[in-house]
Amino acid sequence: MKNSKWILSAIVALAATACAPTASQLKQAIEKDPSIVFVAIEKDPEKFIEVVNKAAQEAQRKAQQKAQEDESKSREEEFKNPLKPEINESRILFGKKDAPVTIVEYSDFQCPFCGRAFGTVKQLESEYKDQIRIIFKNMPLDFHPMAMPAAKYFEAITHQGMDKAQKFHDYVFSHQAELNVKKDALLKEAAKKAGADMKKLEKDLNDPSIMAEINKDIDEAKKFNITGTPGFIINGVSLRGAYPIEEFKSIIDRQLKDSKK
Fold first, then answer.
1. Using CA atoms, how far apart are residues 110 and 115, in angstroms rounded to an integer?
2. Torsion angle, CA of 175/178/180/186, rounded to 10 degrees?
3. What would the pLDDT profile of 203-246 be if each residue is shown by its tens digit?
4. Residue of 235, 230, 198, 205 lying closest to 217 (CA atoms)
């Protein structure tokens, strides 16, 4: 300890003169005797914590800035070379069929972030009306126990018409907190509210094509590196997460503008 204090004193003395220690000299001194750091912490622990917090905040700021720059570059690349999810007109579609902007949504009925995104999408539908259409695809996550049953209900109800499927979709997301408690009872309640034929629904739930469709959606999402929910592809441009509505609008507005050129 005495040796470390001597080295620390020498560094401090050097810093007080016209010739300050270089980063290399400090690094060498600490590598030679790491206890120097502990001596400095003991001398002024509050200052040490302040410095560490500032360093952590700066590192976080730089990481966020880099992530934003990387995302911006990636987005520009997707505007030039759009992603191409499968657009099957027989799948559930909310909105006008010939809308200029197609939003493919990969979602989980039990995911709280998807619940937040539900409100955003509803607002987009209200503002853009016939200019956008939404194709809803299922991506139930393993750690949400009611996500897969809800996805199966949804796909089975699509066999009875898009209008009923959308009513079921909206009801479940509007009562998402109850899904965690009521579970299957909430799904049956949503199906009845949507006007579904319950006998046909019960039969269709066991149709192998239901699981095949869900697995197909999951595989497609993974192909586009969408590993969490919600995920969106807006005319080929991706948004991964429950972003503020402004992010959606910036992409939609640019695509609408480009479509008029």
1. 8
2. -80
3. 999 999 999 999 999 999 999 999 999 999 999 999 999 999 99
4. 230
Predicted confidence band of residue 51 (pLDDT cuts 50, 70, 90): confident
Q: Which among 112, 157, 155, 110 has a CA at the least distance from the CA of 136?
A: 155
CB atoms closer than 10 angstroms to residue 85: 20
Helix (H) or strand (E) holding 36: helix 35-43
Residue pair 110/150 in contact by the 8 Å Cβ criterion: yes
- Mean pLDDT over 182-196 rounds to 97
Answer whether 245's CB lies under 8 Å from 117's CB.
no
Dihedral Cα 87, 92, 93, 94, nearest 10 deg: -150
252-261 LR contacts (CB < 8 Å, sep 24+): 252/101, 252/124, 252/128, 252/131, 252/132, 254/79, 255/100, 255/101, 256/100, 256/101, 256/131, 259/100
CA-based nearest residue to 140, from 35, 33, 71, 213: 213
